[in-house]
Specification:
Blueprint: E1 3-4, H1 5-13, E2 16-22, H2 59-70, E3 77-83, H3 93-104, E4 109-116, H4 123-133, E5 138-145, H5 149-155, H6 161-173, E6 177-184, H7 191-203, E7 208-213, E8 216-217, H8 222-227, H9 236-249, E9 255-258, E10 268-270, H10 277-290
Helix pairs in contact: 3-4, 7-9, 9-10
The structure holds iron/sulfur cluster.
Length: about 300
């Protein structure tokens, strides 16, 4: 059975780790015009970093501000500096080195987590990540969402599956903990297709996965399609059943970094049940326990 991120952090770091969501001021090739200017169809203007600190502040200032938000929960734990918004390797290497070094130099930061795209990991960036990993562990998060070309085209992902394969293989060779983002419930996908994606991730060499269901956010190109009834979102019960099947195809040592997800409440159009995080977690945990698939 797969393990939880908390268990993985306990095993690796000997304590609980809390994420500090930071904004490195990056852009994204899907937004700056180099591949597209509209972004992925589900992406809000915040570049999937809706909870990150203000991008104008320095990394150290952001760390202190983010610490303030999670300090009440902190019990014998340390922090992960989490560069979440946009594509966090999409900048010249000297700039990335300065940014990430500032983050890992903080004494309470135990690890660095970098969210990026598989097509934004050229050799010099990979070398930098390996160099940083020798100072403090580096976790790399890659947005895959689906292995299916038709879905990738529909969501305007902007890179082929071969880029993902290459990136995971390079990160694996460097022994970096790699986490793959998958979105369940993407338009046009059957359950079989979603399970194929999850199975592919399980066999890819990645060590972790984040499963999230499709959200419709105000201001995205998905919103008018949803309003026109051309896109549907999942119900909680169906989502929990699907999660059970996804977990069953993953290898036992896969680290589950996320099973749900919630968009920023002020922009969330659907499904609104995701706004009640406590109810969602209770339902999902109860269901997964019943079928013997609760990670951990
Ligand atoms: S790659 Fe990430 S940041 Fe860029 S448009 Fe897609 S979801 Fe948004």
């Amino acid at each position: 059975m797969a393990i939880t991120a908390n268990q993985y952090f306990q095993q690796r770091f000997g304590c609980k780790l809390y994420k500090l969501a930071l904004d490195g001021g990056m852009s994204c090739p899907n937004r700056d015009g180099s591949k597209d200017s509209r972004g992925c169809i589900f992406c809000s203007g915040a570049g999937s970093g809706d909870f990150a600190e203000a991008r104008a502040a320095s990394v150290s200032e952001q760390i202190e501000a983010a610490k303030g938000r999670v300090q009440a929960k902190l019990r014998n734990g340390k922090y992960i500096a989490y560069f979440q918004s946009f594509t966090n390797t999409y900048a010249p290497v000297p700039h990335l080195r300065a940014l990430f070094t500032e983050a890992i130099s903080h004494p309470e930061v135990a690890a660095l987590s970098i969210a990026t795209r598989p097509d934004c990991l050229p050799e010099p960036v990979l070398e930098l990540l390996a160099e940083l990993d020798r100072v403090k562990p580096v976790i790399v998060e890659l947005g895959l969402q689906s292995i299916h070309p038709a879905t990738a085209a529909f969501i305007r992902r902007g890179y082929p599956l071969s880029d993902f394969d290459r990136a995971v293989s390079c990160l694996h060779a460097l022994r970096l903990h790699t986490v793959i983002h998958v979105i369940l419930g993407l338009p046009g996908e059957t359950e079989r297709m979603m399970l194929q994606t999850v199975d592919y991730v399980g066999r890819s060499g990645a060590k972790g996965i984040k499963l999230q269901l499709l959200h419709v956010l105000e201001g995205t190109d998905l919103a008018p399609l949803w309003r026109a009834g051309q896109v549907q979102t999942m119900e909680l019960e169906a989502y929990a059943r699907l999660l059970g099947r996804c977990l069953a195809v993953l290898p036992p040592d896969m680290v589950i970094h996320r099973l749900t997800g919630d968009g920023p409440k002020r922009e969330l159009l659907a499904p609104l049940w995701t706004g009640d995080k406590k109810r969602v977690l209770n339902y999902v945990n109860h269901y997964l326990t019943e079928i013997g698939q609760l990670p951990g």
